[in-house]
């Protein structure tokens, strides 16, 4: 295990009815909030009215801005920053999934500077931030308990991240029943995303023997697969929603990465380039790329991946094969089958991404790879990976 610093300052309030605490929690941080929400699901189910009422009850003034879209746009974040400045808000309250929370992180810091928020994503990290609280409505990204934010710039077709300790939410309210209305497609994309977060560390961590991390991740993978099976039978299985919600949070809150060493995240780098250009759902973009990347990596310095996939296959995908090379390949096939059961694409063709678009995505990914510390991922290497992520002829 390698040295690390682990500091996660987010207070998680998890359980039935906990949204009713949102007013008192916001009151701890200020007198006026900007409530940020998505394109209608929170309003339609009555959640936004409930949240606004709780803030009023707690004496917290608020202004609400809806309309954050999946793969959140820079243009909407700019609108939110202008509103936060005009209204002089003390805090942000994000009510939604990862997209709403990510945009809120930009607004928290954007409201305190004179320059454009996009500069945060271009390397000029925020030095201050308004407090952020969240009410999570979709389990997937882990944004409710991490300091990452990702925005899409529709003009340049870039989708870029920043990470900052100041951007961790102060409080995240996780009421699993709120996720009962999440569609089959978004549930599956969320499962794929949480699994991908675990796989980035599992497959790519440089530590030669990160035993504790592998064990932790395998436990989460087994839990997520179990929840997935129950949810595919019944999207309204509250027990499965509860377990999956916390598992998805744990999958990207720094816990599995601590002690694993500086881990590259190639799948997320490639997927962000993909969804920046095609607007594919993040979880679907990841599932479309993963099997192809795994096959490519096995053939290119793939010794470590072979051992880890063989282990993953035996511990999480019921594979009994004793030969590592065969077990690793079987594991990839099992992952593809599992994606198809979930209803997410197992390659770029199943995702409906035209082959003609590969060149543009590859160029964008090759450009982003440098900032992600992934110098190995040249246009030539990416071309081989994207070819492997196409359905075999
Ligand atoms: O906009 P509304 O109407 O609310 O509908 C949303 C949206 O259409 C809907 N939804 C959310 N909660 C719902 C619901 N529908 C019914 N019932 C509910 N309770 O779901 C759709 C997708 O929402 P979105 O927030 O986009 O999904 P997700 O949470 O998967 O977030 C994806 C974004 O997060 C980024 C992704 O790249 C993508 O932009 N990520 C953020 C990360 C982070 N900050 O750490 C890490 C991830 O790897 C990821 O990159
Ligand atoms: Zn992700």
Give a quick rundown of the structure.
The protein is of the alpha/beta class and 393 residues long.
Would you kindly provide a written description of the structure presented here, covering whatever features stand out?
It is a single chain. With 393 residues, this protein is α/β, with parallel strands linked by helices. 50% of the residues lie in helices and 11% in strands. It has 15 helices and eight strands. It has helices spanning 22-27, 41-44, 47-57, 74-87, 98-110, 118-121, 184-204, 211-233, 238-251, 266-278, 282-298, 303-316, 324-342, 358-371, 379-388; strands at residues 11-14, 32-37, 61-65, 91-96, 132-136, 148-153, 158-163, 171-174. The strands form two sheets. It has a six-stranded parallel beta sheet with strand order 1-8-5-4-2-3, with helices on both faces. A two-stranded antiparallel sheet has the order 6-7. β6 and β7 form a beta hairpin. α4 packs across α5, α7 (184-204) runs parallel beside α11 (282-298) and α10 (266-278) crosses α14 (358-371). It is globular, with a radius of gyration of 20 Å. 52% of the residues are buried. 5,6-dihydroxy-NADP is lined by residues 38-42, 70-71, 96-100, 102, 137-138, 140-143, 146, 148-150, 178-179, 181-182, 186, 189-190, 193, 252, 268, 282.
């Amino acid at each position: 295990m390698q040295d690390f610093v682990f500091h996660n300052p987010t207070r998680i309030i998890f359980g039935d009815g906990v949204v009713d605490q949102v007013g008192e929690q916001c009151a701890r941080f200020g007198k006026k909030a900007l409530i940020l929400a998505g394109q209608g699901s929170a309003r339609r189910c009555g959640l936004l009215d409930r949240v606004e009422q709780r803030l009023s009850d707690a004496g917290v003034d608020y202004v609400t801005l809806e309309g954050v879209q999946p793969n959140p746009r820079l243009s909407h974040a700019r609108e939110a920053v202008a509103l936060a400045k005009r209204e002089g808000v003390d805090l942000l309250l994000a009510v939604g999934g990862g997209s709403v929370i990510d945009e809120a992180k930009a607004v928290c810091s954007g409201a305190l500077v004179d320059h454009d928020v996009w500069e945060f994503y271009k390397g000029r990290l925020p030095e201050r931030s308004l407090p952020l609280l969240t009410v999570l409505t979709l389990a997937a990204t882990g944004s409710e308990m991490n300091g990452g934010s990702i925005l899409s710039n529709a003009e340049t077709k870039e989708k870029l991240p920043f990470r900052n300790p100041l951007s961790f939410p102060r409080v995240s309210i996780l009421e699993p029943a709120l996720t009962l209305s999440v569609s089959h497609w978004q549930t599956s994309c969320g499962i794929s995303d949480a699994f991908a977060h675990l796989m980035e560390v599992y497959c790519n961590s440089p530590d030669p023997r990160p035993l504790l991390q592998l064990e932790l991740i395998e436990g989460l993978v087994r839990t997520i697969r179990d929840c997935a099976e129950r949810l595919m039978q019944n999207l309204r299985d509250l027990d499965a929603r509860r377990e999956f919600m916390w598992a998805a949070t744990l999958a990207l809150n720094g816990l599995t990465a601590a002690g694993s060493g500086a881990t590259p995240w190639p799948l997320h780098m490639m997927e962000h380039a993909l969804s920046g250009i095609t607007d594919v759902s993040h979880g679907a973009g990841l599932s479309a790329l993963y099997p192809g990347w795994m096959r490519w990596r096995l053939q290119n310095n793939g010794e470590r991946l072979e051992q880890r996939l063989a282990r993953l296959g035996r511990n999480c995908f019921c594979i009994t094969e004793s030969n590592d090379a065969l077990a690793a390949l079987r594991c990839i096939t099992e992952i593809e089958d599992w994606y198809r059961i979930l209803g997410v694409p197992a390659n770029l063709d199943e995702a409906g991404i035209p082959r003609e678009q590969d060149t543009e995505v590859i160029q964008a990914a090759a450009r982003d790879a440098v900032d992600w510390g992934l110098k190995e991922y040249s246009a030539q290497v990416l071309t081989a990976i994207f070819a492997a992520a196409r359905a075999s002829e």
